[in-house]
Amino acid sequence: MKENPLRKYLRKGSLPHFFCPGCGAAQVLNYFVRAADEIKLDFDKLVAIGGVGCAARIPVYLDAEVLHGVHGRTLPWAT
């Protein structure tokens, strides 16, 4: 079976994901990785920042540097 070429953007061992069935967070991750591939985003220069809740899990899957902040602090932290 041929491996999906987009898996190169995900951490090894990060799949299968642990999002709930019907959760949109998995789709956000999917579309982010597709867009990153399309624009040839350099993940060696990427820092992904997650806050709280299920959306905060999204950066954990990316093969990039990841920071987790507390509620309401991630945007100031990112700038």
Gyration radius, rounded:
13 Å
N-to-C span: 42 Å
What is the spatial order of strands in the main beta sheet? 1-2
Approximately how much beta-strand content do the residues carry?
Answer: 5-15%
Let me know the average pLDDT.
Answer: 86
Category from helices, strands and their pairing: alpha+beta
Q: Helicity range of the residues?
A: 25-40%
Please state the overall shape, judged from the principal axes of the Cα atoms.
Answer: globular
Helix and strand run: HEHEH
Our count of helices gives 3
Number of strands: 2
Report the sheet with the most strands, covering strand number, pairing sense and barrel closure: 2 strands, parallel
Task: Please give a structural write-up.
The protein contains three helices and two strands; from the N terminus they run H-E-H-E-H. The protein has 79 residues and is of the alpha+beta class. Strands 1-2 form a two-stranded parallel ribbon. The longest helix is centred in the middle third of the chain and has 14 residues, at 25-38.
